[in-house]
């Protein structure tokens, strides 16, 4: 265990170059961009069946997304909902297929981290990507529902004990814990199931922990930089928001792939120790 930890950084640095992590992250950023709006469209189609609103979805994204990108996302989502309120139809199949492109790209990146080729048939591999997309949507919806019902339950309990005035302060603290926990669950599932290699759930934890902490911190730092120092609109004009979104996706891609590489290194050392 000590040997694995002491050699993690040099091994990770070597793998960044050998596996072209930065190049793969650029590919992920492209597929994330293609997947974002189909994924949000599908979530919007579920709203009539759930006790949440479009604003609830945007609030979760707003916690981490750079300011300029939120204007782009909000504008497109509101245009979609106004033009067509009944999107849940046969066309949603194409939407989910497009949304799964991001997961499919992640699968390829993880396979490279473990030095394995994709031997699963195309339909099975794509089907798995679609199922993981659905799972991610389910977890995301659950993350939205927990605050809704949690707040109602909390208000009831706190009012029973005469602590209603203190509830909002406590709730605002707890709200920041929900998103990282949900992220950790999503990353653990991805690192466990996505690679074309038999793994245990425990083996996915180190990379999931790194990706959760790394993604939250890097997203908050980049969001602060964009809002305080970066003036991308002055450089790129009207496409400034898209550039910011792509850079955010690029940073996210690097973090996600590094988490997969950490798990691959950890798995390799464990095999050598046996």
Structure description:
InterPro entries: Virul_fac_BrkB. Its main location: membrane. This is Membrane protein. It is a multi-pass membrane protein. The chain crosses the membrane at residues 21-50, 87-107, 128-149, 169-193, 205-226, 238-260. The protein is mainly α and 274 residues long. The chain has one domain. The chain is built from 11 helices and no strands. The protein has helices at 2-6, 8-18, 21-46, 54-62, 67-83, 91-113, 122-160, 164-193, 205-228, 232-236, 240-273. The protein is globular. The model has no long low-confidence stretch (mean pLDDT 79).
N-to-C SSE series? HHHHHHHHHHH
Distance between the termini: 12 Å
| Quantity of strands, as a count | 0
Radius of gyration over C-alpha positions, nearest whole angstrom = 20 Å
* Global outline: globular
Query: Which secondary-structure class do the elements indicate?
Result: mainly alpha
| Count of alpha/pi helices | 11
Averaging pLDDT over every residue, what do you get? 79
Quick tags:
globular; transmembrane; membrane; 0% strand; Virul_fac_BrkB; 274 residues; 81% helix; mainly alpha; transmembrane helix
Brief description of this entry?
By secondary structure, the protein is mainly α.
Helix-strand layout with pairing:
Blueprint: H1 2-6, H2 8-18, H3 21-46, H4 54-62, H5 67-83, H6 91-113, H7 122-160, H8 164-193, H9 205-228, H10 232-236, H11 240-273
